Amino acid sequence: MSCALSSGYTLDCRDGMGGVKNIYLANYENVSGTTSSNGTISAIAKANNGRFYKFNLTRATASAVEEFTDDLAAGTSFNAQTVTMIFNKLLAATRNIVATMAQATLVAVIEDRNGKYWYYGKESGLTRSGGSAGTGTASADRNGYEVILVGEEREMAMEVSSSVITTLETP
Q1: Helix, strand or coil, per DSSP, at residue 74
Q2: How far apart are CA 99 and CA 149, in angstroms?
Q3: Per residue in 161-170, pLDDT tens?
Q4: What H or E segment, with its residue span, contains residue 101?
Q5: Is the pTM of this model over 0.85?
Q6: Residue 89 region, left (φ>0) first, then alpha (ψ -120 to 50), else beta?
């Protein structure tokens, strides 16, 4: 990989939106590899009859963030990835999913509100680092779960081609 800057940036239309629409999660060990070029993943190979599970999320309740962490003196650089999800309503089935997330190492495909897909946890996976479950206090408070997944990756999240998405949920 070349370390020299080789292109600039041109302003695009101001039509982007923040937020996450859906998150697809799979067990890290059930992804055997990816095919990529120029920062875009064109194929995700699954092992062990692996599949991704789709999580539909309420608007304005989920986020995917990358923090660039560099240490000039040490000569190191990595990307801290954080995925935050909210599940409304305390339910036994949701509780069981959240509990399983505490034990698993995962990968995620994030669908943003611009119709783009991003791959998190590619090299090292994502693990649950925290979250909460609560009933709320007032009538309008959230009753449900918050789950925070984190990972550290050498590269920034890659875009996933939309043609890959139709194959995620099948073994």
Answers
A1: coil
A2: 13
A3: 999 999 999 8
A4: helix 92-103
A5: yes
A6: left
Lowest average pLDDT, out of 9-13, 41-45, 104-108, 137-141, goes to: 9-13
The Cα 31–Cα 47 span in angstroms is 6
Q: Which amino acid does the sequence have at 112?
A: D
CA-to-CA distance for 74 and 133, rounded, in angstroms?
A: 39
> In this structure, what are the phi and psi dihedrals at residue 33, rounded to the nearest 5 degrees?
165, 170
CA distances from 131 to 15, 87, 114, 134 (A): 32, 11, 26, 10
* Conformational region of residue 113, where left means phi above 0, alpha means psi within -120 to 50, and beta covers everything else: alpha
Q: Which amino acid is at 138?
A: A
Q: Are strands 144-153 and 127-134 parallel, antiparallel or unpaired?
A: antiparallel
- Asked if pLDDT for residue 2 goes beyond 70, the answer is no
In the sheet with 127-134, reading across from the earlier edge strand, the strands are: 63-71, 76-88, 144-153, 127-134
Q: Of 58, 43, 34, 20, which Cα lies nearest the Cα of 143?
A: 58
